[in-house]
Structures are given as structure tokens and as C-alpha cells.
Write a structure and sequence with these properties.
The complex is a heterodimer of chains A (about 180) and B (about 160). Chain A is an all-alpha fold and about 180 residues long. Chain A is built from six helices and no strands. Chain B is an alpha+beta fold and about 160 residues long. The chains are: A mainly alpha (about 180), B alpha+beta (about 160).
Chain lengths: ~180, ~160
């Protein structure tokens, strides 16, 4: 049940689309977008970790994404200063905060424990909604890319790369961590 | 080590404004011009807080650029007579601001739609986890709360801080 191929394809597509964004707009925007997408992944995994106590894979993936985000924050801090890093931290909280909050609400509510159907429904809904963030980010990436560079072809490639990469990564993570979810 | 300008080579200021790269001795090394723009001076406070962007269209502002020419990463050259020439320059010019109204509108619309969408999804994520209401109810309430928060914060930022 190894999904390393999906992880590989997903990561390659994501790095490729961020590289195009770097070329189309600038490094700062590419780093900002990368952190936003990683924050979506982190929120998704950490939500899974909260609602499924004892699920090691979700926790490991959360730590992995948190580590990547921390590295990017340090890089941004070195290049653009503390203010730039604060913007990045804001993006991280913006895209991961709702899922973490939803996880805490779900986990600290005993009434839902008795109705596993309602709980499962809510968990699946939150997981799906969290994925929607990627679509918004890709749409903004496309418009921003066209606006800055005038190249709608490359902007489209970057946006499609982001969506495809995220799709494969989500798929891989679902296989690894959510095969028996709820 | 300072770079010595050899005979037959000319160093004149005019070239600084025409090219980003200046050829200096010894060949094939190249000097680089490093430009650092410091300030944009405002006239009649036009670049103040909460300006209307389209009102800037056509306004001319004086701009000062301080820059240092680096020759082989040194800000100074020594000529064949041993004299040192420091390569710090200041230039003043007037810049006319051109605002593309279409692009500004596009920027604002993109920003607004993206913000509204993200806040609506954020609200829906939290709302769908709230146990008191049903899943659909929580989703709908979350959407509305997310939108209201978006407009509330947006209005507050615009009203008090002039953003955007």
C-alpha cells in the first residue's frame, strides 16, 4: 500500500508550479503561495490527528509539513526580514487555523461521540472543505500570474500543476492515513 | 585591490545613465552599477494615507536616486596618477505616475473575491464542526459568519487604516 509514487508526482508538480510562479511573478509570491498550500496540508493532517486520536501517520505528516513551513519562514525571514515572515505566518494561520479549530470543536464535544454517523459526516465535510482552499489559491495564482507576466499559458500550467500536485498529495495522504478513517 | 584605469579608457558619468553594466579594465572583467532608490518625495502630500489611486494618474513627483558604481566590487577606482575616484552619485529626476485603471480594478476585484471565498470556506469549516446545529445548518451559518467577518474586518481596515 505504498503511495510513494503519488507523493513523488504530487511534490514534483507542486515544486514545478512554484518554480513557474517564481519566474512569472517573484520569489516572495512563490514562497508565500508555497506556505499557504503547505498550511492547507498541515491543517488537513492535523485535523485528522485531532479527530483520530492515536493515528500516528497524521501526526507524522503534520510534523513534516510544519517542519517545511518553519524552514520557509526562516528563509523568508532571512531574505525579506521579520515583517515578511509575519505575513507568511499570517498565511499559515489563515489556511490551517479553521481546520485546527474545527478539530478541537469536534474532539471536545462528547455528544458527537454517541452518534458516529453525524461525526463521520462532519469529519468528511471538513476534510473536503479544507481541500477547497487549494482551488482558491490556484485561481488567485492564475489571475496573478496573468496579471504580472501576461502569459496566460504559463499561469495556467502553474495553476493546473498546483491542483494536480495537491490532488496526488491528498490522495497519497488519504491512502496512508485515512484508509480506515471514521 | 583597486582597479586602475589604463590609458585609452574613458570614464564618463553619462554612461551611468545609459547602461547597467560598464566595461572596465582589465578585460574581460566587468564592473557593475548598483542602484539604490531611497525616497520618493511627495508633492502636496499626494502620497499620503488613503489616497485614491486614480487621482495619482498624471501626477509628477521628483525622485532622488543615490547610487554607487562598483568596479570589481569596489566603490572606488585609482587612475594611472594614483588619484582615487569615489563612485558615489546622486541623480534627481521627475517621474510621471501613470495608473492603469483597468489593472487597479482587476487587482481589487481579485483580492476581494479571493478574500471572500477563503473567509466563506473558513467559516464553513468551523461551522460544520459545531455540534448544536446540523451539518448543513452549521455549514450555512459558517458561510454567513465568514462573509460577515470578512466585510466587517475589511470595512474596519479601510475606515481606520485606509487599507486598501
Amino acid at each position: 500500500m505504498m503511495s510513494s509514487k503519488e507523493f513523488g508526482v504530487g511534490l514534483f508538480a507542486l515544486v514545478f508550479s512554484f518554480a513557474i510562479l517564481w519566474r512569472l511573478v517573484n520569489l516572495k509570491t512563490a514562497l508565500f503561495t508555497a506556505v499557504s498550500v503547505l498550511a492547507v496540508f498541515f491543517g488537513w493532517c492535523y485535523f485528522g490527528h485531532i479527530v483520530r486520536a492515536g493515528e500516528e501517520m497524521c501526526w507524522k505528516l503534520s510534523k513534516l509539513f510544519l517542519g517545511l513551513i518553519s524552514v520557509l519562514v526562516i528563509v523568508v525571514c532571512c531574505i525579506y526580514g521579520v515583517v515578511g515572515a509575519l505575513y507568511i505566518v499570517g498565511a499559515f494561520m489563515y489556511f490551517s487555523g479553521p481546520a485546527v479549530l474545527a478539530g478541537l470543536i469536534l474532539s471536545k464535544n462528547p455528544s458527537l461521540e454517541h452518534d458516529s454517523g453525524a461525526r463521520a459526516k462532519r469529519i468528511h465535510l471538513v476534510l473536503k472543505l479544507q481541500k477547497l482552499f487549494v482551488v482558491i489559491i490556484a485561481a488567485v495564482m492564475f489571475i496573478g500570474g496573468v496579471h504580472s507576466s501576461g502569459s496566460w499559458v504559463l499561469s495556467l500550467v502553474a495553476s493546473v500543476g498546483l491542483i494536480c500536485g495537491s490532488y496526488y498529495l491528498f490522495k497519497g495522504m488519504e491512502r496512508q492515513a485515512f484508509t480506515t478513517c471514521t | 585591490m583597486m582597479t586602475r584605469l589604463t590609458h585609452g579608457q574613458r570614464w564618463y558619468e553619462g554612461i551611468l545613465f545609459r547602461s547597467w553594466t560598464v566595461n572596465v579594465a582589465p578585460y574581460p572583467q566587468h564592473g557593475r552599477i548598483k542602484l539604490e532608490f531611497h525616497d520618493t518625495l511627495s508633492t502636496s502630500g499626494v502620497l499620503g494615507k488613503g489616497i485614491k489611486l486614480l487621482e495619482l494618474n498624471g501626477v509628477t513627483v521628483p525622485v532622488q536616486a543615490n547610487f554607487t558604481v562598483l568596479v570589481n566590487n569596489k566603490p572606488v577606482v585609482v587612475d594611472s596618477h594614483g588619484r582615487e575616484w569615489y563612485l558615489d552619485y546622486t541623480a534627481h529626476t521627475d517621474v510621471k505616475i501613470v495608473v492603469d485603471g483597468g489593472k487597479v480594478a482587476e487587482d481589487i476585484a481579485t483580492d476581494l473575491v479571493a478574500n471572500v471565498a477563503v473567509d466563506a470556506i473558513s467559516g464553513a469549516v468551523v461551522g460544520s464542526a459545531v455540534p448544536v446545529v446540523g451539518t448543513a445548518g452549521g455549514l450555512a451559518i459558517g458561510l454567513v459568519v465568514g462573509l460577515c467577518t470578512n466585510f466587517g474586518i475589511g470595512y474596519a481596515l479601510h475606515h481606520w487604516l485606509g487599507w486598501p
